[in-house]
Structures are given as C-alpha cells and as structure tokens.
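Materials and Methods. Structural model of Malonyl CoA-acyl carrier protein transacylase. The 314-residue sequence of Malonyl CoA-acyl carrier protein transacylase from Fluviispira sanaruensis was retrieved and submitted for structure prediction as follows.
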Amino acid sequence: MSDIVFVFPGQGSQTVGMGKEISEQFQEFKETLQEASDSLGFNMERLCFEDPEAKLNLTEFTQPAILAISIATLRVLQKRAGVNPTLVAGHSLGEYSALVSLGALDFSDALRAVHFRGQAMQRAVPVGVGAMAAYLGNSGELIPAICKEVSTNDCKVEVVNFNSPGQLVLSGHKNAVAKVCEEVSARKLGRAKELPVSAPFHSSLMQPAANEMAVFLSKIPLRAFSGKIVANVDAKLHTAQSYSHETLVKQIANAVLWTQSLAILQDAAPQSIWVEVGPGKVLQGLTKKTYETVNCLGTQDLTSLKSTIETLSK
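The predicted structure was written out as tokens:
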C-alpha cells in the first residue's frame, strides 16, 4: 500500500442529506453522529439528513455538521480499511477535522470549538458590511496587487483562499470586493463573482473572531500526536512540537494557503494515494486542477466510500 494523505473539507461542502445512506450502512458512522448530538445538544442526524429548520447553511451549524460527517467517515475508513492518518491537511474548518484525525484534538472539544467559531465569525462583522468573491482565470498572480490597489484604510479587500492556480477567493468590505470584480472584468483577466456568504471569512475583518477564539481555545488541550499536519496559515509541515493553539487562532483572520499546502503534501509523499474524507468533492477537484497525476479518492457518498475502502484494503 502506498502512503495515504488524508484531506478534510471545509465550509461549502455541505448538502442536505449528506451521510444518510452511509449512516444506514455503517454503525460506527451512526454512533459518531450520535456522539456529536450528545456533545452539542442538538440532533446532528436531523440537521444533516433533513435540515427541517434550514440551519445547515448557517455557519454556526455548518461547521460542526461538516466536522461530524468527516470524523464519522474517517472512523468507517479506520474500521473497514484498517488505515490511520499520519499525513493530513484540512481546508479552513477542515483543519479541525485533521487535528481530530491525528488525536491532537478531542472530537467533542473540536465540535464545541467549531460551533463557537461559527458564532464568533458571524458576530465579527455585521451582515451586509462584508463580502466574498471567487476569481477564476489564468491571471491569478495579478489579483493580490489589484486588491492592494483598490483597498483603503477603511475599505479593504484581500485574497483569502489560494485554492488552485486558477481559483482564488477574495474577502473584505463589500464595496472593495465589488471594485476588484469590476477591475477583473475591465482588464479581461478572467471572471470574478460575488459569493452567497454571510461574512468576509478569513479576511483581516475577522480579527475580533480570532480574539474570541484565542480565549475559547486556551481552555481546550492540544494533545501530543505522532503524525504530521500541513497548516493553512503557513503551508508548513507541523509536528506536535511545532503546532500550537496560535496556529488555529491565526487561521481565522488570515488566508488559506491551500495551493501551497498541496505542494508540501506532494513533496512529503510523492507516490501517495490521497483521500478526501467527508462530504462533497471540492478538494478532489482542487487537487486534480493542481496535480493531474495525483490519485485522489472520495468518500462523499456510499458508492465512493465503498470504492475507497476497497482500494485502501488492497
């Protein structure tokens, strides 16, 4: 068996019904969602499978839901394919899932942390003040400079997700984000379109949320772990000795260096199989756009999960 790289998705991968078929098939998946319900005091299965109160897209519920589905999926892989993570990364919120996978964070602690994280992020900037936009095109190297050109002291926009060579995400004050979108169109640099989100995530406007998380996370232990994790904020390979609470705190108001993180993972394990553990196919897509030859498997539904178990069990 080749080395295995586990990557964990972030916000935006959620869909109503996620995990339902898997839960019906695997008892350990169902038990993990019950554990999440007990930790947070609301019905995780109901939220993920049915979402009757339309809460799944509210960030304070999205974040624990994706983490719960990701860890439930991981536990199926561990039990059915006999694999354990040693080299991991997670996209934004997914970094919490990655830490749980290594044993660095207790599952219950991580659930409570991301639930609070979602609330803090929403509190940080009043609705309507901030915005985000996706850039798609071949001139990504020019976009950070345009953001600087457009920004003023009280109206800022920044590149906050380096997702793949042709895909960036911008975040900041609504007017500044709109101005960059206009500039991209006027200069014929590709496409930039505002995203339907409720806050300017990962921008410097999120610093109040980072301050709240610093206090919250100071009460949660980070345990020693033997594997390695690539952190979003610096795209560096961390061990238990170098990873700290501060790494997670900084993540909230700083860019997600995902393209750079993929490069580190590829260097660390060039012949590896990659597995996106959790809902959706976002990270599989970004991986293929960045490294066409990487074999990236999915677990987004029962069919893909069973196929991945079969591959990893060989």
